[in-house]
Design a protein that fits this description.
Blueprint: E1 11-14, E2 22-25, H1 30-48, H2 53-61, H3 63-77, H4 84-97, H5 101-113, H6 118-147
Antiparallel strand pairs: 1-2
């Protein structure tokens, strides 16, 4: 049975807040859920070298939301029809178009850890120019300096 098709953990019905019933985990599942959440957090930390500030903030304020985010990240970024490396390069292109250098650093790190070559990273950088412009390219270069300083020109 694939990960996506696994049966849900035991649940009880709860309808206190609306007519629609929604499911909440049973009390016995708390320890298992906590272990799974910790495992996801450790995998995220290993992938990026640290727990990123936004993730740490969410974890400190709402552990359930943090685990849901990490679960979504795990589900969407892991190997599939599209490789993990390519997914991270796409994420880097998207975040750089939003001028988010921190997220771009994170996704370039993920791409490098997933096996992206220097040429693949540079081609991703060049590909964003016609779509997002030179300002986004400059953000990409700032992120690249932090992830792969060896790719930066020596004349700098």
């Amino acid at each position: 049975m694939s990960k996506a098709a696994r049966p849900l953990t035991p649940v009880k019905e709860h309808s206190k807040f609306s007519k629609k019933k929604f499911k909440v985990p049973c009390k016995g599942d708390t320890k298992l859920a906590e272990k799974k959440a910790l495992k996801r957090l450790e995998a995220f930390k290993e992938e990026f070298g640290k727990i990123l500030d936004p993730v740490a903030f969410i974890k400190g304020k709402n552990e359930e939301l943090c685990d849901a985010f990490l679960g979504l990240h795990e589900l969407t970024v892991n190997e599939g029809v599209i490789s993990k490396k390519l997914k991270f390069l796409m994420h880097a292109a998207i975040t750089v178009s939003l001028h988010d250098v921190e997220a771009t650093v994170m996704h370039l790190t993920g791409a490098a850890n997933a096996g992206a070559t220097d040429q693949e990273i540079l081609e991703t950088a060049f590909t964003i120019i016609p779509v997002a412009g030179m300002p986004a390219f400059a953000v990409f270069l700032n992120a690249l300096k932090r992830v792969k300083p060896s790719l930066m020109p020596e004349w700098r």
